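Annex B. Sample input.
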Amino acid sequence: MVKDYIKLEAKEYKKEYGIILKKIKEYDKIGIFRHIMPDFDALGTQFGLAQWIKDNFPNKEVKCFGDNHVTFTPRGLYPETAKENDEWFNDKFLAIIVDVGDKKRIADPRFEKADYKIKIDHHPVTDNIFDIMITRTQEAAAAEMVANFLFTYEKKYRISKECAYYLYTAIVGDSGRFQYGSTNAHTFEISKRLIEKGLNIVEIYAKMYVKDIDDLKTIKFIYDTYKISDKGVAYYVLTNQNLIDLGISTERGKENVNLFANIEGIKVWCSITEDTTEPCFRISIRSRDYTINGVAREFDGGGHAQAAGARIDDLSQLDTFIARLDKLIETGE
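Annex B, continued. Sample output.
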């Protein structure tokens, strides 16, 4: 008998799904929040859920909050997010927070003014400040969980092509185009159902992963300057001056971390990119076989088993960070 993974998850969260749907119906104003420096999953999950609410409850006021993405927003992958003053948050509203585990990483702190708070996420729980939450760390994307919720009620509430587009881009992005270890049967079942809404995946991939010819300069710089530790940690560093010379932002710099995926001998790979707004160096960490989020937490970060983020104050801490990853590879701890 073929398992219906969507129904299995719906059965597991029947109570929570019922409460979430009830709250969406109850509130006239709904704010959907995501993490800072958003990625495909944060944006796609947020806008997919917002689109579903707008499609099925057109009289509700639905806003998406958080900083726009430096390239995805201008390219039209996702709309611009709401720019509301504090007055909007003074009325009674529902907050739905997606794809973020840490309170400090929620992009707009005004979510705390909400009358009721819901969280749907696939990161390990660090802050339990919500009225209700669904957390499934075994799933590749937060969008999987939102899509599962929507498909559970599909007979009564429609899932439009636009909603499916947003959720599909989120899953593709956070699963590394279905290559990461978090990809599972549920990921494929949800993706299949979304594609059946009329998506053209060739057009979607072209839109998601298109690069400018100027990006070749950045890639060349990375390949010219990267380093590999004795244990197999590959990494590149982009200082603020490097970013200025290359004409890119911190966010664009870290997007190249997977240049070192699938290369024999490289076991963990990282981008280390300066962020002058903090100030700090932001680190993206990836791996195939090693659980890296524990190390990420030691360096003011966190995330998934094979995809995590961290930060160091300055480059004087870089050797310590790389040595810690070397130890992980050597000992498994």
